[in-house]
Structure formats: structure tokens, C-alpha cells
Amino acid sequence: MSTAPETAAQAAQAAPAPAPAPWYAAFPEPQSDLKTISREEVLEMLKGNTGEKAGKDFILVDLRRNDFEGGTLSSSLNLPAQSLHPTLPTLYTLLKSAGTTKVIFYCGSSTGRGSRCARWFSDYLVKVGDTSTESAGGIQSLALLGGIKGWVAAGGEYLEFVEGFEGSVWERAKSQ
Q1: Nearby residues of 39 by Cβ (< 8 Å), 6 or more positions away
Q2: Domain Rhodanese: where (predicted)?
Q3: Residue 176's Cα: distance from chain center in Å?
Q4: Cα first-last separation, the chain
């Protein structure tokens, strides 16, 4: 048994590798306050009870990538959170050109990716000076409270607005 001090190489080999930085560490920390919207409000919008048209007046953005399974909310775009920040200028231009007044971001729970991306888009709106109210043609950036998990858990008529709904995926998720 050797009592000689370890070499630097031996010490480095024995030390656990540092955990990789989270995906969002490559981008600035959002500065804007989070604004949210309830699933009840979004359901009324999807039903057409508010006079707002999906894909025109409001857009739903599903931010899931690896966990994009089990269905998505009707009329949603899938823009994975990991690639959203560099595309903010393009997303803004598309939404502004279309006259969209609400962009609603969501992920599984909307407490991580959903809230982060909604705040990044709010930051971008401030950067380009688009801080006018919705009625004055401004865009609102919102996160769906509870995300798609909350939506599916609500059951009933909410499930009518989940495209590609796969109940087995949600049952499996409940048991984990």
C-alpha cells in the first residue's frame, strides 16, 4: 500500500466530473415578470367564446422536445425551448405581421421552460419597444398555468382540445 501523495492526474481521475450546465445557461437570465393565463381562459379561447381566433389572434407554443408525447393542445406550434431564444426575432416578426396579440407558452408544468420562454419573449418585446397594450396592437407573452399536465389532469372537455391524445402516456406519467 502506497502512502505517496496522489498526482494531479490521479486526483482528477478520482474526482467526479462536474455536472453539465443546464441548456438555458447559454442564454441570458430573463428579466421580465412572468404573466400567466389560466387553462379555463385558454379553453374559452379555443372554444371560440372570446371572439379570438387560434393561430391568428393568439398562438399556443408547446416547448417540449424530448418529452413531446401524449398529445398537444389544439392549434399549437412545437418550438422546443432549447432552440427558442435565438429565434425570438423571427418569432416576433411572424407574430407581429400576423396581428397576433397573445402568445401562450407551455411545457409539461410551465414552471420551467414555459415560464422562462414567456419571460424571454417579454424581454424581447421590451427590447423592440413593443410594450403597448393588447388593444393597441401589442403582443402579450403568457405562460399557461399548470402546463399540459394540468390541462390533461382537468379531464373532460379539456381533452377534446388535445390533438393526438394518448391516455396511456398520461397514465404512465402519473405512476412515475
Answers
A1: 144, 145, 146, 150, 151, 154, 158
A2: 54-160
A3: 22
A4: 46
Q: In the structure grid, which three cell numbers stand for residue 33, read together?
A: 415578470
pLDDT at 174 > cutoff 80: no
Residue 174: phi and psi, rounded to 5, are: -65, -35
Backbone angles phi, psi at 120, to 5 degrees: -60, -45
More confident residue, 157 or 135: 157
Q: What is the 3-state secondary structure (H, E, C) of the chain?
A: CCCCCCCHHHHHHHCCCCCCCCHHHHCCCCCCCCCEECHHHHHHHHHCCCCCCECCCEEEEECCCCCCCCCEECCEEECCHHHCHHHHHHHHHHHHHHCCCEEEEECCCCCCHHHHHHHHHHHHHHHCCCCCCHHHCCCEEEEECCHHHHHHHHCHHHHHHEECCCHHHHHHHHHC
3.40.50.150, 3.40.250.10, 3.30.200.20, 3.30.70.1660: CATH of 27-175: 3.40.250.10
pLDDT over 90 (residue 69)? no
C-alpha cell at 152: 390533461
